[in-house]
Amino acid sequence: MKHFDVDVYNVCMEPTHITSIASPTLSEHKAKGSRFLGYAYPLSQADDLKPLLQKLYDEHPKAVHWCYAYRLGSDGMQFRANDDGEPSGSAGMPILRQIDSAGLSDVVVIVVRYFGGTLLGVPGLIQAYKQATVLALQDASRLEKPILKTFSLRFSYEKMSEVMRLVKRTEAQMLSQDMEMEVSLSVAVPKSHEATFMQQVQDWHWLKWEA
C-alpha cells in the first residue's frame, strides 16, 4: 500500500453531502385524456432500477410507455434518460432536467403513460413528462446523504484500539475486517470527517493505507 500526502484544505472545501429523497412518491398528471403517473424513488445504484421497472410493468400492464431518468453519485456523472418509444428527447430528458433542477441525486423518476387517444406532439409530451416529474418530486421529503470515501488500512494488532477510536470519532463505516498476522480494514469515511481522518493516518507512520 502507498502512503501519500494530500491537500487537506481542498478536502475541506469539497461538498460533504448529496440531497436525495427519503421515500417513494406518486403523482398524476392528465393531458388530453392521457394519464401520466410519476413515480419517484431513492436509488443508490443503477442495478436497483430493474426491479422497480418490473414492479410497474406488473402494476400497469395496459400502459403504453414507462419512461424514466436517474442521476446517481456525488459527481453527477452517472445518469440515464430513457424515452421508451416516445419521440427522442420528449420524455427521458425532461424527467432528468427536473431531477437536476431540484438539485437531487441518487434518485430515479419513472413516468407511466396511459394513452388517451389524442396525440400530444413533442412539445405536449415534454410538458406532460416534465409536469408529472415536478409533481412527484415536490411531494418528496428531502434526505441529506453523506458522501463517503473508502480507505484500506493495514497495521499490527496492538494498534487496533487506536485505529478503532479514530473510526468511531470520524463516524466511519466498517466495510470489511481481516485479522491474521496483521489487521486489514476497509472503512467508508464521511466527507465531512475526511480531513480529520487523513490528517491522523498520515501522522501514524506505522500505518499502511490507501484511498
Automatic annotation (TrEMBL):
User: What domain of life does the UniProt record list for this protein's source?
Assistant: Bacteria
* The protein, known as: YigZ family protein
> What Pfam families does the entry give?
Impact_N
Please name the source species: Vitreoscilla stercoraria
Family classification: Belongs to the IMPACT family.
Where do the Impact N-terminal domain residues begin and end? 32-136
Task: From the UniProt annotation, give the residues forming the signal peptide.
Answer: none
